[in-house]
Each structure stands twice: as C-alpha cells, then as structure tokens.
C-alpha cells in the first residue's frame, strides 16, 4: 500500500517535466529561436553598464549590457545567456524592453512583467528573476562608472 | 477493535506521531488485534519489524529482496534514501564499478518479465526496478549524489543563495564564450579542462562531507552546477559537430 503510493509519486514527479516541455509558450519559442540583441558591448566603455548574474539553482549564466546616451536614455542593449530556453527568452525580452527607456524607467521593470508576457510556469519564474537581476546589475554598473 | 484504534491514536498523538498513524494502522490492522505493543515497536524506526506480505512471516533481513521463507518478492522498505536502495554506504565517495555491478545485479533479479505469473508480484517488481533505476541515476551523477546526500543530512540549497564573487561568474561566462567560438580541437581541449575543474570541485565536496562542513559543500555544489551547465553546452556542441557519438 505504502509502496503503491510511492510509485504514484514517482509517476507524478515525472509528468510535470513533460508538461513543461510541451507547454512552452509560443513567445518563449519565438525568442529562443530568434533571440533579439544577442552580442556584447565594450565593457570598458564608460557609457556601457554590464550586468553579470548566475542562477545557482541550475548553473545558467546571463550577461546583459546597456549603452546609455548623455540624456540618460538607453540607446542599445545586448545580452548573452547560456542556459535554458526560458532564461534566453527572458533576457532577450528584457533587452527589447529597456531599449529606448531612460535609466530610471528601466529600473522599474519587474520580473513579474517578463514572466507574464512569456507565460512562464512557476518552476521557470527564477529565469525571469535572473533577467531582472541582470538589468539591475547593469544599471548599477553604469551608475558606478558614471560616479553617480 | 475500536478501542484499540482509539488507544493507539492517543498514543500517536502523545508521541506526536499523528502523521505516521494513517500510514501504519491501515495496512497493519490485523496485527493490531494481537497487541498494541508490537505496533508501537513498529512505529519506532529502531525496532522495525517487517512481515512478508505473502506468507506473513517476520522478515529477518529487510535488505533481502525476497522473503526468506516463501521466496516471494517484497516491497522496498526504503524509498527516499537512494544509498540504502542500492545498499551503498552513505558517503559521497563511492566505488563506481561496485555501484554499477550492484545496480545490474538488482535489475537482473527484479526484472518485471520474471514475474509475469503473478499480477501483484509483477506490480511490485515494476515499482521496485523503477526505484532502482532512479537511485542509480542519482548516485552515478556526482552532482545529484552530492545534492541527495546534503538533503539526507537535512540541508537544502535555497534558491536565493548566490555566489558573491563576480570574478567567478565572469570566468564561467568567459569559458562559455570561449566554448562557443572554439575550433573542434579547442573544444576537445576545453572539455578536458572542464572535466578537470569538475574533478577538483568533486574533491572539495568530498572533503566538505568528510569534515561535515556543509556550508562549504553547498558552495561547492553551486560551483559544480555552473561547470555542469558548461559541460552540457560543450557536449551539445561536440555532438552537433559529430565529434562524439
């Protein structure tokens, strides 16, 4: 009796993974297959802020860079992510969103907005958090460089 | 019968074993009639008495997969300790050949095809062999083994633990980028380097467990996850380029 309960548990623990795989939202797949703004900016440039973050839970690493003009507007953004589809999609979307925004507006961006846009399942929420952390890290790097 | 149940539930409540109650009473209600003392012994993990589901004889060695009297396959007694399932010492350092040998031996005697005569025995063997597969999958991977052992020691790695070392992350990022643009020869070299790095971290984990320095173990496990992710990246590229099977 106790055993059949555990085999039920084994079965149910297997199925969610399957569900997640098949339930990737089309927007995630789109960003994964055609990622926007992949690449690097010169991190020594004073107008470039670099954010480098890692996900200790899965070993994903994400680099997000912003280039800011003299008016405090983000004119370019690039990212490089080594990780799962959701992490790539989250950072791709994040670069799209911060472009054209001011530094202060970009700081308002929430991981929940990214997760909502990409319809991320609960187990993938940390990927959107990673993107938010990356933006914050890039903004703070920029501010440090500017001596603000 | 009801009074026995009532006295047992009071016993359980008193001992704060309420959660165990439903698990233990229902399948064992027959033995309840004999004596409540034996039940309390059952509940204590130190004097667990297990009976064969088929012939009812008390089993001498619960590690045996079959009843010593009727030779019928038994339900696994341990389900969440993968070291115990494969009869290994609870240690990060394992002899891989020995583990593989034991795994193959167990799968050989537990194979569901050998129990096609009885529905129940087949059912038990299916569940048991899938459990053995799972255990082997966990133990053979250094990362999963370390995580499991940490979990058995009552520790988990929370999601918000971060490595507060930007240089380390930069190093991982650089390695990933290097892998991305590497030529086939460089890729093979990077793979070797990465395996070396992973071996060093496994050494750290092993030492951490020996000294019971679980904080260090956690930190090393996180590092190993980054290298593991890098290793997946390298292996995908090696496969794509047809450098490995």
From TrEMBL, chain A:
GO terms for biological process: iron-sulfur cluster assembly. PANTHER family: IRON-SULFUR CLUSTER ASSEMBLY ENZYME NIFU HOMOLOG (PTHR10093). One of its GO terms (cellular component) is cytoplasm. InterPro entries: ISCU, NIF_FeS_clus_asmbl_NifU_N. NCBIfam families: iscU. GO terms for molecular function: iron ion binding; iron-sulfur cluster binding. Belongs to the NifU family. Signal peptide: none annotated. It holds the Pfam family NifU_N. This is NIF system FeS cluster assembly NifU N-terminal domain-containing protein. It comes from Henosepilachna vigintioctopunctata.
Automatic annotation (TrEMBL), chain B:
It holds the Pfam family DnaJ. CDD domains: DnaJ (cd06257). One of its GO terms (cellular component) is mitochondrion. It comes from the Eukaryota. Gene3D superfamilies: DnaJ domain, HscB, C-terminal domain. Signal peptide: none annotated. Keywords: Chaperone. GO terms for molecular function: ATPase activator activity; protein-folding chaperone binding. Residues 81-144 form the J domain. PANTHER family: IRON-SULFUR CLUSTER CO-CHAPERONE PROTEIN HSCB. NCBIfam families: hscB. This is J domain-containing protein.
